[in-house]
Amino acid sequence: MSFSAADLAELARSVPPPDSDAGRSASARVDALATPPGALGRLADLAIALAAATGVCPPVAPVRPTLLIAAADHGVHRQGVTMWPQSVTAAIADAAVRGDAASAVLAAGAGAELVVLDVGIIEPTVAHPRLLRAQVAPGTADLTTGPAMTSDQALAAVGAGADAARNLIAGGADLLAVGDIGIANTTSTAALTAAFTGRSAAEATGRGAGADDPTLERKRNAVATAVRRVGSETDPFVLLCQLGGLEHAALVGAVLSAAAKRVPVVLDGAITLSAALVAVALAPSLSEHLIASHAPAEPAGPIALAHLGLVPIIDLQLRLGEGSGALLAVPIIRAAAAVVQRTARLDQLG
């Protein structure tokens, strides 16, 4: 079934506001716990946010966390913005579902299911039950010379992400972590971040997967060219088409779909944060359903975090992607819910 602009608008409208009653009840519960005032620090904030997002107080610790990794390639690769060949995208996707990519190791440690959604990988991948094939196109077009995606392509990728999240939730997922795989996707991420926040290409562009100085210069030039090309455009969907990747579009659909079901979303690094910029512009109440897992080393990440008003749980200077930071945050999210749910109240002591 095709996914239309009307479907996207309906999906955005379906994202509910936070449940203020549940949030207030969770706050009151924290205040009543047998702990010194403020002793739980940001764990308390996280528990209150979980209650408001899910509409349940006390917040319930997730038992079926699931990582959805959206994967695709990028036409801007031809501008020499990375030192890595595009074949790496398929290789990492294969390793993730096989179980020996870094994300798969971390997923096993966190007790999380891992699924890779292929919306635009160029090289062949090996069939696997955890690899969902929903390829829209063999990568995007070059964003320095024109739109990265047609509107139909972007809508199809959004729809694929929304469907994947919806199916995972129907299967029992109660916390959706999101990640990405895609060589050159930090270039489109920098362009999206600059366009949505008003920051310069130089500020938003980093070394990605270890770019040397000449590569970084080409990357900054590509981002500057793309952002200059879109001018003063502010429509979030148009900007997604112009500057984003197919995996960005899929992530937009996934986070909107999860939030519509009141399933909290754990963002990873700069790529997922730039997708969140698009999604929140489409559905402002979405921001209350998002959890920032970590502070990415890639400069677009902190810029997007500040724009979204999100405070990350951890800061390990990660720049891996693949949902790695989101997975590391899962045990802390579980702990936040559990401590508020199970700690005795002052009035229950002796």
Automatic annotation (TrEMBL):
Q: Name one GO molecular function term.
A: nicotinate-nucleotide-dimethylbenzimidazole phosphoribosyltransferase activity
Q: Record keywords: Glycosyltransferase included?
A: yes
For whether the record's keyword set contains Metal-binding, the answer is no
Keywords tagged on the record: Cobalamin biosynthesis, Glycosyltransferase, Transferase
According to UniProt, this protein's pathway is: Nucleoside biosynthesis; alpha-ribazole biosynthesis; alpha-ribazole from 5,6-dimethylbenzimidazole: step 1/2
| Functional note | Catalyzes the synthesis of alpha-ribazole-5'-phosphate from nicotinate mononucleotide (NAMN) and 5,6-dimethylbenzimidazole (DMB).
Question: PANTHER family from the xrefs?
Answer: NICOTINATE-NUCLEOTIDE--DIMETHYLBENZIMIDAZOLE PHOSPHORIBOSYLTRANSFERASE
Recorded protein name is Nicotinate-nucleotide--dimethylbenzimidazole phosphoribosyltransferase
Q: Which organism is it from?
A: Candidatus Neomicrothrix parvicella RN1
